[in-house]
Amino acid sequence: MGQAGWKGFFQSAFDYKTEKYVIAKNKKVGLLYRLLQLTILLYLVLWVFVIKKGYQDTDTSLQSAVITKVKGVAYTNTSELGEHLWDVADYVIPPQGDNVFFVITNLIVTANQRQSTCAEREGIPDGMCSQDDDCRAGEPVRAGNGVKTGHCLRVGNSTEGTCEIFAWCPVETQSRPKKPLLRDAEDFTIFIKNYIRFPKFDFSKANILETKNKDFLKSCRFGPNNHYCPIFRLGSVVQWAGSSFQDIALEGGVIGIHIEWDCNLDRAASECHPHYSFNRLDNKHAKSISSGYNFRFARYYRDSAGVEFRNLMKAYGIRIDVIVNGKAGKFSIIPTIINVGSGVALMGAGAFFCDLVLIYIIKKREFYRDKKYEEVRGRGHVARETEAEAEAMEREQREEGLPEEHGQEEQPQAPPEQRPEGERRRVWEAHPFRQDGYPKECKGECAATEDTTDSGDVARAVGGEQIQR
Question: Where does the record place Basic and acidic residues bias (predicted)?
């Protein structure tokens, strides 16, 4: 590559190429384009930046700790338990105060159980028998209460009975509760303490009001206008979850308390507030044999002889799940540029769609397509087309019987001095060097000058001098 080639190469590196735009004076397509631009602009401003805050970097890896406490007392007087005062140590399980805890609202008590032999409860298929061979010794009763001893116990002259088992006797009764035992549990209070941290921004906060007043938590209650007093009345929580306390206290249920932290860290930290919502997590509309929430536990004692016995309790109640979610956002240039670039790309997609409408859908699409796309061909292609057009014209002339003016072979021409006077004058007057007949410089002298070559060289006398072209 020579010096001129390298110079052109380096100069072309600083060239700038831009697009050529065709302005289509079509009101319908123009209106469609402006509507698309307006829609994309509204989407970018309102949805991306205002609602979704697309200009912020976000942190959803929330670190959370939940501590719970329940307070309240209830008094009962039943045949199984007698007079009994229930405090938090009796009805809250587990007592550690985790984010999941259980409040007892109803009980079925089987008192004074001791390990001995007794009849299996009726209604258990594997415990039914008609003879001793149906009760194989040492075999546990499936879905039952003990281990078979090998005897079938029948009442009176009945042909069927139940297997004798070694278990905690008497076995549990299967009666379902008719009314809640701890009706006063509706007024129990739940204290939920929640600490959160967003590690990406090193931001921490709690759901308790920062105050030096030690009596604040003793008198306040949670409400729509008091989100920094996380003390909830149990009956109100059930009501906010869309249930009746008396119904859920009878057979139990699961309530979710959701704490949502949505923090805009472009503002002051005092504007980052917790938002609470409540819902019932189990299906309250499904009335089945396993509806509600219950479990069993026992309390063990020893009599004066040192023999162990227990009181078995089937507890029904309200399980509370405290669920914490959250995210924090703060301005960052990277997501801002990404979302703006996405909006610009959508603008380009709108222009592409309008191009499709303009050149493929509307009635004048062929006209606009010809204006938008310019067809450029090489010299060889143009020469071939010209030759093809000449041949086509020659064929048409033959068919019409007209004299051929194109495509004829050139006949050798006579020297200029042998041509007739009129032909010499026509050749001279038709030469492209002339403008109107004779050149202006001739002034009558050009009649003596003739075309002496066939290659287009022309000689003329101007003031006694010869000029060749």
Answer: 378-409, 418-444
